[in-house]
Amino acid sequence: MTSIPAVPVRSVPVRLGQLLQLANLLESGSEAKEVIANGLVRVDGEVELRRGRQLHGGEVVQVDGAGPVRVVHAP
């Protein structure tokens, strides 16, 4: 079993669109908006359509075509 790479965030909650950029899964907010609206992002295995979805740490986020990442709080 492979481990899921962690994306440390200092300030939680973090919005989904911001996390996608922090994790280098997408390059811009407009790209995040489009990818999320097209149903290509999953949070904990469920399709997420809200760019402003707040993530508190521990969630697994995946964009179609990219490996998953786990949100972790980095104090």
TrEMBL record:
Which stretch is the leader sequence? none
Q: Domain RNA-binding S4 spans what residues?
A: 14-73
A UniProt-annotated Pfam family: S4_2
InterPro entries referenced in this protein's UniProt entry, alphabetically? S4_RNA-bd (IPR002942), S4_RNA-bd_sf (IPR036986)
Q: Does the keyword RNA-binding apply?
A: yes
Q: Which Gene3D superfamilies match?
A: RNA-binding S4 domain (3.10.290.10)
The protein's UniProt keywords, in alphabetical order, are: RNA-binding
Q: Does the keyword RNA-binding apply?
A: yes
What's the protein here called? Answer: RNA-binding S4 domain-containing protein
Q: State the organism of origin.
A: Rhodococcus antarcticus
Q: What is the lineage of its organism?
A: Bacteria, Bacillati, Actinomycetota, Actinomycetes, Mycobacteriales
